[in-house]
Amino acid sequence: MQIAQRMRPLQANVFADMDRAKFLARSLGKPIVDLSLGSSDLPTPPHVLEAIAAALPDPTTHGYCLFSGTQGFRQAAARWYTDKFGVAVNPETEVLLLIGSQEGTAHLPLAILNPGDFALLMDPGYPSHAGGVYLANGQIYPMPLNPEDGFLPRFEDIPPAVLEQSRLMVLSYPHNPTTATASLAFWQTAVAFCQRHNLVLAHDFPYADLTFTGQPAVSALQADPDKTCTVEFFTMSKSYNMGGFRVGYAIGNAELITALRQVKASVDFNQYPGIQRGAIAALTGPQDTVHHMIDTFRQRRDAAVAALDRIGWAVPVPEATMYIWAPLPEPWGDRSREFCLRLVERTGVALAPGIGFGKAGEGYVRLALVHPPEVLEDAIAHMASFLT
Q1: pLDDT digit string (tens) for 303-324?
Q2: I need a labelling partner for 83 at 20 to 30 A (CA). Which of 243, 331, 374, 384 fits?
């Protein structure tokens, strides 16, 4: 059987290797402490679950849901965004419900790129950003992120010949995996650059709330309030612990929202209305669970950084996200995949290898803070025994 050539770049996946390694370790009876996936272990807020449960017996929620059936959610999302970031949003033309923000970022290249067009992606970056470009038969220009630049891309380093063929730039701050944040001044520079070169600016924004500074992260649309070239992707997975419910949304330029809606209409219907009701309850209801989530991950960050310091593994202290981006100690500096495979085989502790996020991620591992402090400390103790 012949498989499409566009699938070739998707066949090699270091995370699939890690999944097999975890399965093998489990089959040998080794308990796994999985710090490789950014899937929150915190519970979905009770008032969200109550809204979903109340919808289940309602037969009006049991059929297909078209765009008009998402109006209540779009209105709630628009109000949430305006209250948080001070930018007006039209829920009819500038908001689109998604089955998770990953769906939106993967479908967007289909709406923007012609075969051979370039997308400018962060390196390291979230793997699904590249997957969507490959499925659209686009080309990728990786923008290296270096610690000396605060893990921010250097737009001036992009070759003019690449820019002439580029249609899309994808950014994401707070950043997975490096945990870097971006200022309003950076976003103003990014928007001006995209306007000058006729690029769509897509901002993947799952960690809008998960910062440890006391303030939400900066939205790209605060630098582009007229939405001239920008679309932003949100998810309910992080702030509201709704990862398994698969609900997210896009806010931004009306033309881009329309194009994304057309792609989506060819692929799927909208999220189950009961889950939409739960998401509305999350966005409009009490936000104390969001504050609790932030405090929880702050405590875990502090415990993990301190535990790593005790074993002689110095790491930067993250200002945001649920991760630690740790430079590998010698002699493992350029062997992140091998390090993670051997670590889970010998100790049961699973980390994400930096090479899985792009060439510039080599030399790092990502540790997800998805367990209580005592579990993180015990896992790091096992890591210490492995290192010695």
Answers
A1: 999 999 999 999 999 999 999 9
A2: 243
